[in-house]
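Case study 2.
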Amino acid sequence: MPLPRLTTESEFLTRFQALGYEGPKQRGPHPFMQKGKHKPSIPNSHDFPIFVGKLRRILRRAGISEEDWINASQ
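Prediction:
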């Protein structure tokens, strides 16, 4: 199953939390999620929904595979 074309903010946060990330937290201009040393920046609320390309970049920086993302919260 491929990544969805669009991802809403609530789905985005739910899946990150299902993968063990805490947040969103805010220090500076962008919110971020945190799991250990991983602190990927996430889009601001007004930037949602996000397209698949931006989601892939965020997942790569967070060290999350597309398969893990798809299986999260299922």
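The beta strands are 6-7, 22-26, 31-34, 50-51.
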